[in-house]
Amino acid sequence: MEWGKLTLAGAAATQGDGGWAPVDDPANGKTVGYVRMCSAQDAGEAVAAAHGAFADWSGQAPQARGAILRRLAGLISENSEDLATLLTAEQGKPLAEARAEVASAAGYFDFFAEEARRVNGEIIASPRTDSRILVMHKPVGVVAAITPWNFPVSMVARKLAPALAAGCTVVLKPAPQTPLSALGLAALCRMAGLPDGVLHVVTGNAATIGPVLTQDPRVAFLSFTGSTATGRLLYGQCASTIKKLGLELGGHAPFIVLPDADIDKAATLAVAAKFRNAGQTCVCPNRFFVHEAVYDDFLTRFLREVDRLVSGDGRDAASTLAPLIDEPALAKVERHVADAVARGAKLTRGGRRAAAGRTWYEATVLENVGPDMLVSCEETFGPVAALTKFTEVDDVRGSVNASQYGLAGYVFGRDISTVLKTAESLDLGMVGINAIHLGLEMAPIGGVKQSGLGREGGHAGILDYCEPQYLLVGL
Ligand code: NAP
């Protein structure tokens, strides 16, 4: 299959014997391409091959692995327009967002190309003069990576880059809605010189492939990004082989506007954070808590920005609001809005399927949102902003910390002491303070509570793909 300069047939996709599955464009329902439905045997063979390739790959000098990753970052940048076009075709987001995602993926490979040479050990002071204590960090082994459809390039890069840099080999199962982006990245890995056997992309049915990845003892680490429900299931499946786990799960981000905030900045960034990828983002705000003193001003500016959003095909430069990924995603959004309205929320904007096409939903704003509503408890994953007016920040903190989720949140205010105290008091893995773009490759991305385990990105991100080995040396 040709896609611009990328020849996807040349990707390291495992050939399956279970037929082919179509990949559809959410904007118009047209089939973009087909991928193999890999069997359990294919998945097992991919694990075996990754296991076989581990000794050579982990035995290479970190600088050699880094050089391949640096070349890969360059190839991603050179082919960014093709990758972004492919991403938009199978996922639906506006091209500008797809380009930003591809640039972020290149950033991950570039960063971890450098980190490969910084997996340093430690010498610990020994209690005896006749011994020394050394600690080394060794690559964990074969990594199984399972990724979601909402960021099909950057979520793959966030796992592949540190895993390959550390010296691990990888079997990747991308989401069935968006496997072509992963195959595009795999094709570039090959062009960058990644040796055979180091990366395998296994496309197909989760029920067939999943149990192999979670239960094969040769897989040392399961790195999963997706919903909390699936993460919980995979956690259980990994118990039989006591795998190391990295879980990047669902979120329910609060966006808190304090009375001294720069209201124009807060409203503009609030809309950008909420409606990016049509709200199908793990870190997108699910609830807005706005202080009563600035509520009306914030609402006016927020609605001004919402009214500027344009629903349309992502390939049209004017489009800023993407379609939802599929019919079940639309049905969930409709359920949340209907529940909120039935329980007394005010529907200020939107609230219907949009005319732009089959899976668009209007940019929707709900006011007077209460804690008992579905939008306050579950991830909506759609273009719905739920607003609540508050008087005391302590009440907001209680509400935020009562959630099972603890991924991300945002605090807007000018008094640094109040803002820092508020941010620190929230049980969240990441907080944007007067800022929204949290997904930076040099920072530790991840959540607490049922939003996940471990961190991706930053130096901690590469150490997650290693195990420390302690050596007691007698002299
Ligand atoms: P999902 O339904 O949990 O699926 C994620 C991936 O897991 C897909 O590849 C899916 O494949 C696979 N999967 C599902 N059941 C499986 C099983 N039993 N065994 C093996 N694999 C299985 O999540 P999604 O709807 O794609 O993604 C949206 C979710 O991801 C949201 O909750 C969002 O918050 C979260 N997310 C979190 C982060 C973060 O950094 N924390 C980032 C992005 C997204 P199938 O579709 O074939 O089942």
How would you describe this protein?
This protein has 475 residues and is an alpha/beta fold. The protein has helices spanning 40-59, 62-78, 80-91, 95-115, 154-166, 179-192, 206-215, 228-237, 263-275, 295-306, 327-342, 374-377, 393-401, 416-424, 458-463, and strands at residues 2-3, 6-7, 20-24, 31-36, 122-124, 131-139, 142-146, 169-173, 199-201, 219-225, 244-248, 253-257, 285-291, 346-349, 364-367, 384-390, 405-406, 408-412, 430-433, 448-449, 452-453, 466-474. Helix 8 (228-237) links the parallel strand 10 and strand 11. The radius of gyration is 23 Å and the shape is globular. The protein starts with a strand and ends with a strand. Bound molecules: NADP nicotinamide-adenine-dinucleotide phosphate. The site of NADP nicotinamide-adenine-dinucleotide phosphate has 28 residues, from helix 7 and helix 8.
